[in-house]
Amino acid sequence: MFACFRMLSYGVALLLFFILGFILVKGIGVINWEFLTEAPTDGMTKGGIWPAIVGTFYLMIGSALFSFPIGVMSGIYMNEYAPQGKLVAFIRMMTNNLAGIPSIVFGLFGMAFFVNYLSFGDSILAGSFTLGLLALPIVIRTTEEAFKDIPDSYREGSLALGATKAQTIWKVLLPMAMPRIITGLILSLGRVSGETAPILFTCAAYFLPKLPESVFDQCMALPYHLYVVATSGTDIEAQLPIAYGTAFVLIMLVLIMNLTANAVRKFFENKLKSK
Q: Considering the entire predicted model, what is its pTM?
């Protein structure tokens, strides 16, 4: 059985390398410095993807600024303050259900609420809030589980020394939970960076060869740009290498986010051990 499990694990790894290799071989011809730093030209059959890269980072930063404080505070409240009972169980169930909602539903909600009702229009602000809602359940559950795994002896010891509950959370529990919280945040950003449906209805521009100047401007984004290049345009055959190159950059972006999550987690773990 262990040999079977080992073969299945190797099979998953080989599948990942096969996908990466296939995309790299198809798109390696367009990946260069100009491709990463220039705007698309000639009906997106030439040029680069710089506006899409910048737009993706804007959306990731905006969604983090929205989801991180709300998610962390919600997770702390559910584990440290709320009385454990039917209400918390109901909130936890709703959070899990929110995490399972298809992303296109978030896109429709973002269009109805942020774009139309709040009059943000198709903008980075509307897209960031929508992606933040998508990342919020992950941050909440990660924070709650991180605090739940801390032994009660740390809470009791801090309170016994005269610290208040807020001081105990801020000075004792939060630093211990921070590695897992940061890891959850970065992994959630890795997920939202590849979502197409939410930004399709809220902020993504078909072709915008300039950088946005404010949060109320539209922007290009890598997942939507990949969809556009691969499915529409004046010359699909000429655009396919650009589509594969864009897909490879997007995969590398997600990979960097995951590696960053591991590095940040180890940094905070080593910092806690040193104390």
A: 0.86
pLDDT reported for residue 272: 67
Q: Give the pair of three-digit tokens for residue 110.
A: 């973002």
Contact indicator for 248, 29 with CB cutoff of 8 Å: no
Half-sphere exposure of 152 (CA within 13 A, CB side): 2
List, for the chain, all residue ranges whose pLDDT scores fall below the cut of 50: none
Alpha carbons 192 and 70: distance in angstroms, whole number: 17
- What's the rounded Cα separation, in Å, for the pair 44 and 127? 23
CA atoms of 62 and 71, how far apart (whole Å): 14
User: Phi-psi bin for 233: left (phi > 0), alpha (psi -120 to 50), beta?
Assistant: left
Please, what's the b/e burial string for 219-242 (b: 16 or more CB within 10 A of its CB; e: otherwise)?
A: bbbbbbbbbbbbeebeeeeebbbb
